[in-house]
Amino acid sequence: MVIKAQRAIIRKPGSFDVFDFEDFDIGKVQDNDVVVKMNYAAMNHLDLWVRKGLPGVTYPIVPCSEGMGVVVARGKSVNSLKEGQRVLLSPGIGDYLSEDYGIHGETCNGTLSSHLKQKSNLWIPLDDSIDDRVAAAFPLSFLTSWNMVVRRCNVKKGDIVFIWGAGSGVGHAAGQIAKLHGAKIIGTARGSKISKLDSGFWDLLVDPKVDDVVGAVRNFSSKGVDIVVEHTGEKTWKRSLSILKRNGRLVTCGGTTGPIVKINLPHLFIKNQMIIGSTMGSFEDLKNQILPRVSNGDLKVLIDREFDWKDIAQAHQHLEESNAIGKVLLKIK
Questions:
Q1: Burial 150-169 (b: 16+ CB within 10 A, else e)
Q2: In angstroms, rounded to a whole number, what is the distance separating the alpha carbons of residues 133 and 329?
Q3: What distance in Å separates the CA atoms of residue 14 and residue 2, rounded to the nearest whole number?
Q4: Which of 71, 314, 318, 327 is most enclosed, with most CB atoms within 10 A?
Q5: What is the mean pLDDT of residues 262-268?
Q6: What domains can you pick out in the chain, each with its CATH number?
């Protein structure tokens, strides 16, 4: 079978004009391969970093880590999936705790392609309880957040969890996951973004542009918070440590405002605090813990906007200017 396809590609890092589209042959379908006609890809801040030039990335590369579509071909050894079946792709490849763990769109070609061939064990079947847009939008941000809040910080009932960027993919997911486990949640959002969030869901929403974040948190909980979910970095780091209570845990998965931070070591060890790094999460959690909760509505996916995949440059600009509330989708036609 010859499958002609098209994909977006970044040949070298740069600004919004680096994207190109090329025709390609999907190649021979090996015994354990599955070929999927992609319907949607979804964007994350990782895509911005890859576009600008992320150390360790080999160019040219196809962007985006998340996506879903319909099976159109499979190798002779694949019995778990069938042609016509809707599937989503695991954003990660391999054991997330190992040194050779990979991420689509960073360590190998991503999902912004009309057709995608990948091994059968990386595709997860979908039932009718979840639609295409939601299926494409949740995997990376919810997997990252689940690992941060549940696996790394062991959130429990009664914990107070502070989350930067309540309207971001990771922030919105982390708030829901913490709430699902019985925690109280404090989030930040700027200006009009607060009105677009469910204020009844969050125990406290703070606008860091006009509010005193540390003061607001101390008014809510005089001793501070048990967990801080950090993915912003340099501009928020000092305040994150200021609001963390004794024996608290700060978990970080990124640094969107800058990667270099300072730590006052006596403050850290005298208060017996923990700073925890976290990247992605397990395939098993994605399939068995998160997907069922998204499908039944326990976890809700916030979608900001949908772009045609050929408008990838505009989508990047929209996300980079911090205009997004939730996930940005790319419709593949």
A1: bebbebeeebbbbbbbbbbb
A2: 8
A3: 33
A4: 327
A5: 93
A6: 4-138+301-331 (3.90.180.10), 142-277 (3.90.180.10)
Strands 204-206 and 274-277 come out as: unpaired
Can you read off the two tokens belonging to residue 301?
């996916």
Residue 15 pLDDT grade (very low, low, confident, very high; cuts 50, 70, 90)? very high
Q: What secondary structure does DSSP assign to 129-193, as a single string?
A: TS-HHHHHHSHHHHHHHHIIIIIIT---TT-EEEES-TTSHHHHHHHHHHHHTT-EEEEE--TTH
Cβ pair 254, 231 in contact under 8 A: yes
pLDDT in tens, 149-207: 999 999 999 999 999 999 888 999 999 999 999 999 999 998 878 877 876 889 999 99
Q: What is the pLDDT of residue 84?
A: 97
Per-chain mean pLDDT for the chain: 95
Looking from the CA of 92 toward its CB, the CA atoms found within 13 Å total 23
The 3-state DSSP class for residue 301 equals coil
- Give 245's Cβ-side CA count (13 Å radius): 14
pTM of the model: 0.92
275: CB partners within 8 A, 6+ apart = 250, 252, 263, 268
For the chain, give the percent of residues with pLDDT over 70: 99
